Every structure is written in C-alpha cells, then in structure tokens.
Amino acid sequence: MKRLLSAAALIVVTLWSGWPIPCLAAPACLQENAEKAAPDPPPISFVADLALLQPKTREDHEKADLRGACFAHYQSQGRELVFIGTQHGTRLDSPSHQLIEQVIDGFQPDCIVIEGSETRMGRSHPGLLRDARRMVSRGSCPEPLFTAALAAERKIEFVGGEPPPKATTEALRKLGTDRDALGWLLVRQLGQVRREEGLERLDARLQEMLPRLKRRFQLDTDMSLTDFKAWFHQRAGHPFSAKNLRFARTAPLDGPTPTFFEKAAIEVMLARERHLLSLQAELLTRHRRVMVVYGNGHLVYETPVLAAMLGKPTRIDRRW
C-alpha cells in the first residue's frame, strides 16, 4: 500500500512540476531500452568471386542456350537482380526491345545498368539521355539507349556498366605493344561500322578513328593508316580489305588455337566483366531490385559468378 501511495504521489508531483513521467511498468521499459541499445543488424553485403570468371568457348555459349533475348532472375537476402541478355539491334519492335519494356514494367527496378556507357559518367547522364530520346523518336535505337529512355520516363535511375578506358588499355597491354592495342581497337570498331554504316568509306573512317582511339586509350604509338594495314597483314595473315576482316574476328571466344584477335577480345571481356560484376554487387547493397541490360554473351560469362553470389536463378525465360 505504501508503495502504491508513493507512486501516486510521484505522479501528482510530476504532473504539477512538468517533469517527465517516469515509467512504472519496468519490464516493458527494460525491453524497450534493450531494443534501443541493441546494435544495428549488419548491412547486406554481396561479394563477386571474380576468380570464377573464365574464358568461354563457342561450345560453352551453345550449352548455356542463352541466345536471342532472354533474362535470368536472381533473388537473395531480400534483394533481386534481373539480367537481360539481348541480341544487339536497333529496331524498336525487336524481341530484345520488347523484353526490356516488359521487364521494366513488370519488375519495376530501382536502378538499371546499361551496356556501352562508362560508370564514371554518373547516374542518368543528361547527354546520354538526349541521344537516347532523339534516336527513339527516329524509330531506331540500340537497346541500351532504348532502356535509358524508358527508365527516364518511369523515373528510374540508370547507370553505365563499362569500366574506364584505362582498364581496356591494361588488358590489351598483357598481349603486346601499344601498336597492337591500337590495331585491335580499330578492328573492333570496324565491326560496328560494318553493322551500322557499311564499308564503302573504309579508309576515311579509319583516318577518323586513329587519332580518336589513340587519345581515348592513351596509347603511345604513331601508327598511321599505312602502318595499320601493314600491322593487319602481319597479325591476320591476309592483306587488309573489307572482305578479309573475317580473318580478324574480335568475338571473345576461347578455343584450342585462339588468334591474337580472339585472345585480345577475351582479355578485354574479362576486364569488362570484373567491373560489371563488382558494380552489381555494390548496387545490390543499396537497392532492392537491380536490372542489367547487356548482350547475352555477357550473361554466359557471368553465370558462375552470379550463381555463387546470389544462388541459382529462380527463373530463366524469354518473356516476363
């Protein structure tokens, strides 16, 4: 009884004085204080085991059966990653473009990673977005830029997944000189020229690309157009021509006797994948849903690493 009167008196005094009322229900208070004092749970962390990255053969790609437009959906620790493997093209009604729109609307990602743009450009780069919108309005747009345009419409952040040029330069220097590096970069660029422009202005395009690629990748070589053609003949075993570009394939395919061009492509591919996988692991610590849009060959390279980091995909499909 004395304890109850003392408690009642304390409440009266407290109300009159304006002091805060002490908690009389000790067990509940102790529980609340204990919860407040408990340390925060450790943040979710993902680490990509880059040692699992290995060169892939043509047979590896065929066995994976990830050709055409498809996606793999991963889930782990309350996080989700959807990796869309595309077949490169510019038609807005292509299977790749259609799948991208389906996944964006159905998955509703918090952040999207796109191919072909450097991560250091930052989030939702305005210049890249202007190019994307212009190309979409013309009815022809590569799928990474198409993705950027759709993301911006839906207020979703996008970021490039490419490493800085220095990573490519370092990868190529493992196999030869800066002259070899510049020669290979020119051949790779010609593949895009052939797909998008044809090869009628081959020499003129090479003259334009030589100083630009040398400057971008900080290469120490004075290679001229004549030097490049001599280098091509030496490395490919055939005189340089539009027809003979088939002897200088830059697809990152391993094999029993890979050419210099294939070896260089593999080294560059591995450098790109190391950067992209590290970026995905970082983004998954900050976002619940991450989407990646890259060519389907990248998914073949990354599958073992993603499975080790996130578990086997919960779904692989061609339609969302």
Write a structural description.
The chain is α/β, with parallel strands linked by helices and 320 residues long. 53% of the residues lie in helices and 12% in strands. It has 12 helices and 6 strands. It has helices at residues 2-17, 26-37, 58-64, 95-107, 126-138, 143-153, 165-173, 178-196, 202-216, 225-236, 260-286, 296-310, and strands at 70-76, 79-86, 111-118, 157-162, 289-295, 315-317. It has a 6-stranded mixed beta sheet, with helices on both faces. Strand 1 and strand 2 (79-86) form a beta hairpin. It starts with a helix and ends with a strand. Mean pLDDT is 88; it is low at 1-36.
Can you tag this structure with a few keywords?
single chain, disordered N terminus, alpha/beta, 12 helices, 320 residues
At a glance:
Helix content is 53%, strand content 12%.
Give the biggest beta sheet: 6 strands, mixed
Report the uncertain regions: 1-36
Q: Average pLDDT across residues?
A: 88
Global morphology = globular
Q: How many whole angstroms does the radius of gyration measure? A: 28 Å
Give the number of DSSP strands: 6
Element string (H = helix, E = strand): HHHEEHEHHEHHHHHEHE
**Alpha-beta content class:** alpha/beta
Per DSSP, what share of the residues sits in E-state strands of 2 or more residues? 5-15%
Oligomer: single chain
Distance between the termini: 70 Å
Helix tally?
12
